[in-house]
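Fold it.
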Amino acid sequence: MGVLVGDIMTAKVLTVDMDRSLNDVRRIFERSAFHHLIVVEEGKLVGLVSDRDVFRAVSPFVGTSTERSCDAFTLRKHVHQIMTRLPETTTADSPAEDACRLMLESRVSCLPVVNERGACVGIVTIRDIARWALTELGGQGSRAA
C-alpha cells in the first residue's frame, strides 16, 4: 500500500469557533506558524479560514495614521462571515496521491483531515505534499522545510 494522508499530514491544528472576531484571528495568525484555522461547531468541522482570507477582509488602513472608524470596524467581523463553509476534506486512511489530486482539482492549498464523526484530526497542506514529493524523489523531506 502507498503513502496515506495520515503519514504526511500535520496532526496539530488550531481551531476557532464561528463567532470569533477577525481581530482575534489575525492575532492568532501573527503568533503562530499556521496559515489555516479550522472552524468548528460542537467539535465538528464547519469551515476553514486562511490568513489570506483575513488579509482580504481586513482594511489595509488598520493600524495606520489614515485609519478610519470604518476600517477598524473590519476587525469586528466574525469568522463565519469570511470562512469557506464545508471545505473539501480527506481522511487519514486516504491515499496521499488522492489528496494531492483533490487539492489540484479543487484549486485549494489544504485539506482538513476528518474522522468518521466529522471531527478534524489534522490538515494536509501543499507544504506537506511538497515534503512528501521531495522524499519520493529521493530528497531529504525535512520537517523544518
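The first helix runs from residue 5 to 8.
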